[in-house]
Amino acid sequence: MLSVENVVSGYGETTVVNDVSINVAPGEIVVIIGPNGCGKSTLLKTIFGLVRPGSGKIAFNGEDITGAKPFELVRKGMGFVPQTENVFASLSVMENLEMGGYTIRAPDLEEIFRMFPVLEEKKKERASSLSGGERQMLAMARALMTRPKLLLLDEPSAGLAPKMVEVVMEKIKELREGDSSVLIIEQNAKSALSIADRGYIMVMGKKVFEGKTHEILDHKEIGRLYLGKRGG
Ligand SMILES: Nc1ncnc2c1ncn2[C@@H]1O[C@H](COP(=O)(O)OP(=O)(O)OP(=O)(O)O)[C@@H](O)[C@H]1O
Ligand SMILES: [Mg+2]
Predict the structure, then answer these.
(1) For position 203, which CATH number holds?
(2) Is residue 99 part of a domain?
(3) Neighbours of ion ligand 2 (CB under 5 A)
(4) What is the tens place of the pLDDT at every residue in 151-179?
(5) CA 106 / ligand 1 centre spacing (Å)
(6) Which of 18, 44, 129, 140 is the 20 to 30 Å CA partner of 93?
(7) Domain, as residue range, for 44
(8) Contact 55, 6 (CB under 8 A)
């Protein structure tokens, strides 16, 4: 479904993503874990056409999309929830959803409200009045308005209380049941790995490990370095 091959990208002269290859199969949840500043968001932005790769190739559903623009990618079935400023605070919940659904595929608002009942309850309220968790729900729901086949999520649980982290993870799991693939970046590595099929570890712009989630969880050194496990 998504194939990223040997992508190098960054800002100006600075290389941030250095020769990274990853892929996502249909119906998969794949997580990328790595320390702050290692280039995770830049990789996601490069996939979504917000940062242009210096070299490498990105394909989506077998089609070369290297250098394609975000709006083109949305039309092709890709959705993106950025790490920050992912809702319009001054607009109402409903207006945020409408902003998300401007493209050709008719949004399934009923399905979205079934998944996020709190958004229906608060649809007339301003997004700025929502809690952190509710905002993340709104950001995800907004991206779902275009019925993406692949959703890119940049740290959807950042800054949330542990209980809310679990709620967000459950919602992400539901996306797969709705037939979408998900590529997710997470600091809450253990929570993300509990819902993912596979994962990648990135350090300083490079992919240093990849495997099924149990291989990552069972890996002593990875566990110690990136999952806060002791010993090993
Ligand atoms: N717009 C930008 N212009 C210049 N440099 C940038 C820009 N955005 C990010 N960087 C730099 O690129 C590097 C990687 O940033 P990136 O946001 O991709 O990391 P990250 O892995 O997502 O980090 P975090 O876990 O903190 O979100 C950092 O050194 C950062 O300072
Ligand atoms: Mg980031």
Answers:
(1) 3.40.50.300
(2) yes
(3) 40-41, 83
(4) 999 999 888 888 888 888 998 998 888 77
(5) 34
(6) 44
(7) 2-226
(8) yes
